[in-house]
Amino acid sequence: MIVVYVFFWLHVLGINYVTAKTNRLFGRFIANIFYILSFSVFPFRFFEVSFSSIILAAFIYNNCIIYNSMDISTFAIDILVFLVSMIVGYKQEKESRRNIVYDEAIEKSRKDREQSMSVLLPLFVAKQLLYKSMFERNKSFLKRRFRSATVFQSDLIGFTELSSTLDPSFIVSLLHYFYSRYDQFAVQFNVEKIETIGLAFFFFLLDYFF
Questions:
Q1: E strand or H helix at 194, and its extent?
Q2: Mean pLDDT (whole number) for 9-35
């Protein structure tokens, strides 16, 4: 980046680094490359980099321009075009990056909302709340009826007293066996698991609706 930076200013000042007939469009192309590199390497120091560029230009002008045949107006125009293009590009780049951050935040919020609803609500209810419009929810969701419904809740009676007399590793293995079997039954019979609270296991089963 430093090499590109030096080459650009040498070209703006008219100093021969390749040939005196080098096209100025190449210098502007180098300026764009410098902008991209400087923004990528110093994304939060853009104005500091621009200000230092102005200082460097003034320093080189005072020390080098007198030895090169170059009109001051041409020099000023090159500097102005360079700085304006950097500022405009910076604004566009900043807006683009802000939009990317906002999109990522919205997507993360949507996934968190989906996960929370899938835990707190039955799956078919969560899908309607997330993916249907307000009009569709008011039209169909509140009027839905089911032929029959089964609600299941299990608990271990006297577990506290029993666990005080058993080995902890055996208790963990026992609980794992019970609730893994419950999960298997939920998949096998297509029931909707609500949640597991402590030792309690909740699920329900709905007949087809109309």
A1: strand 192-197
A2: 51
